[in-house]
Amino acid sequence: MNDSSRTQGGLICVGVVILASLFLLGLLQQSYWALALPVTVMVSFVLGLVFWVGYTIATIRVEPEHDASAGRSAESETPTEPSAA
Fold first, then answer.
1. Using an 8 Å Cβ cutoff, are 48 and 55 in contact?
2. Distance of CA 82 to CAs 77, 78, 79, 85, Å?
3. pLDDT of amino acid 30
4. Is residue 23 a contact partner of residue 38, using CB atoms and an 8 Å limit?
5. Around 49, how many Cα atoms within 13 Å sit in the side-chain half-sphere?
6. Cβ(34)–Cβ(23) below 8 Å
7. Residue 20 and residue 26: Cα distance in Å, rounded?
8. How many helices (H) and strands (E) would you count in the chain?
9. pTM beyond 0.85, yes or no
10. Average pLDDT of 3-29?
11. For 24-81, what is each residue's pLDDT tens digit?
12. Dihedral angle of Cα 43, 49, 50, 51, to the nearest 10 degrees
């Protein structure tokens, strides 16, 4: 781990403390925006994630599996007999 990683980690921690302080200050002032903004960000994140999963599933290309029994001759296959049930 180098110094730039530690610096980035420290800046993330400072940013979180600042955002948490602003959130608590907004809650103490009974501000509508203190709850509306975080909820909007989280809902947007979840919807974006679900869209990405759906897009990935819709656009995936699947190669058909090669049938291992296709190379065998018809002589090696045993015919199936109907059951007497």
1. no
2. 16, 13, 10, 9
3. 93
4. yes
5. 6
6. yes
7. 10
8. 2, 0
9. no
10. 95
11. 999 999 999 999 999 999 999 999 999 999 999 999 988 888 876 655 555 555 556 6
12. 110
DSSP 3-state assignment of 83? coil
Cβ atoms 27, 34 nearer than 8 A = yes
At 64, list the tokens.
């058909």
Q: Which two tokens stand for residue 43?
A: 């809902």
Place of tokens 């501000």: 31
Q: Tokens 């999963």 appear where?
A: 53
- The three-point CA angle 66-68-70 to 5° equals 90
Residue found under tokens 């599996």: 65
Identity of the residue numbered 51? F
3-state helix, strand, coil in the chain (%, to 5): 70, 0, 30
